[in-house]
Write a structure and sequence with these properties.
4 helices, about 15% helix, about 180 residues, binds zinc ion, 7-stranded mixed sheet, alpha+beta
């Protein structure tokens, strides 16, 4: 999940820093040492949900469909940052709790890439592509949104349901197989 500095302070206390646990592949992004509990309106919960850094402008809890079923909420599939219609969810930390009126989404699958990668593959910002993942559970994912920024390192982001269904491992080969409408 991504949090604002204010929400993090309410959950963990004033003056507590968000510490790096592990750097993520995308520059500046990291998994922090902090986790908290998320609770749905039926009081069903998932504990140990990791907070990603750095802080953002909005609180956003990214769930898989399976997580949403466990919590008993209907989180919509959305691009990261688009919280219109996001499901209500409550966060509980060691120092307090925060109710988010619209905070939980199932993040839409996407691929990060640099301008050079985009040119090489002939794809544009926001375009949707199909990507085939190899291996014994080979799968083609459609509607994979292209996100281009020069600092981005080529990486496809799936949720855990998608990755598990396709048996994704670190060395799984991914191949661009088409664009939307082709
Ligand atoms: Zn991403």
């Amino acid at each position: 999940m991504h949090l604002t500095r204010e929400t993090f302070a309410k959950l963990f206390g004033e003056g507590v820093e968000l510490e790096v646990y592990r750097d993520l592949l995308q520059k500046g992004e990291f998994a922090s040492k902090s986790t908290c509990m998320v609770v749905g309106p039926k009081l069903r919960q998932i504990d140990g949900v990791r907070i990603l850094g750095p802080f953002r402008e909005e609180d956003q809890v990214e769930l898989s469909r399976s997580d949403a079923v466990v919590l008993g909420i209907d989180a919509p599939v959305k691009d990261s940052g688009d919280l219109t219609g996001a499901a209500p969810i409550t966060l509980i930390g060691p120092k307090g709790s925060v109710d988010l009126g619209a905070g939980a989404i199932v993040a839409a699958r996407h691929v990060h890439m640099s301008e050079a990668d985009a040119a090489r593959m002939g794809v544009a910002q926001g375009e949707h592509i199909s990507v085939r993942l190899g291996g014994p559970k080979s799968t083609i994912f459609e509607n994979v949104q292209v996100r281009i920024k020069d600092s981005f390192i080529l990486q496809m982001h799936l949720d855990t349901d998608e990755a598990n269904a396709a048996g994704v491992k670190c060395d799984t080969q991914a191949e661009l197989v088409g664009k939307a409408g082709e």
